[in-house]
Amino acid sequence: MRIVSLGASGHAGSRIAALLAPELDAADELVLAGRSAQRLARTRTLITSAAQISTAIVNVEDQQAVRDLVSGADLVIVTVSRPDLIGALARIVLEAGADWLDTMLSTPPKIAALRALEPDITAAGRCFITDGGFHPGLPATLVRWAAERVDELTEADVTAGLHIDWQADAIDDATIEEMLTEFTDFDMVTWIDGVRRRVRWSECPTVDFGQPIGSQRVIPMGLAEMVDLPRQYPSLQRCGFYVTGFSPAMDYLALPVVMAMAKVPALHRANVRFTRWAMTHLAVSRPPYRLVLQTVATGRASGIPSQVSVRIAAEDSYLLTAAPVVACVNQWRDGSARRVGLHFQAQVMEPNACFADVTRLGVEVHLGEVTPI
Question: Would the pTM of this model clear 0.70, i.e. be above it?
Fold first, then answer.
């Protein structure tokens, strides 16, 4: 089996490679591909594996180089922050006869580019998995796990609390541009009271994530993986993804400026610089760091109103991004997640196997019992 990791020189890509490599066998090959020879060499030093490990210098803007790279691949893991190239890269991987898994942010342009290829993906018998990682990547998995434990699921909001080092000075421009796309597309729409509607600020809940995050107001963030859940579970009256902000100064002072500048194409480069400055100076968190993803879902079990909870946490944001991707790759390798067509990571993974894998890889997972309320 030949797996190509496109973007292995980046933070997320290198961590995925380091966690994935020990899972592979001697007959497997893992190709670490990226723009920086120095960073690829650093990634290579992190890896211990029975598999064959090689590196390749490639610029994703060079389509022929990408074609040569993915020729003969079984799976291409895409972690590069180039949503503008998503359609071209996906087409190249499809024409190479390989499957696909990406960790790019969940934005309408990315989803639209992959949806446009969906008929060809299905006709070719390929499996394309998108929205890999932590968020997106896990929230809908938590809801699906909870739904298996009650007879009727009525509420299942998923909340994320972040107290992390954003390392803004080490983020490349392409990643910040991807974030700006997400800011531009931001809309406080979620599933609430049995309909999809815009949420008022006064309706945004305050959630206790424990220390060091504490109690924080959370706001809805649109994730494509969550959209289909009310159809899957018709009893759902409330089901959305809510996340904490960066910091009060970043959220209330800088982000309005960022969003206004994003509407003026001529200010794009200036906006990238301003966003980096704001994240470096205004979105500062002090150790200890922690990320928490959780839901307390409610419904009926054996006719009794009940609740069940699941909580996933880590101190390292890149671990929490990489571990679910590796869990997904493991299910793709054993065939359980290799379904023809276009799928979201959170919808294609079997929840219990995912939680077992991410626990083994170092993520905290706390699964609650069903209790009457």
Answer: yes
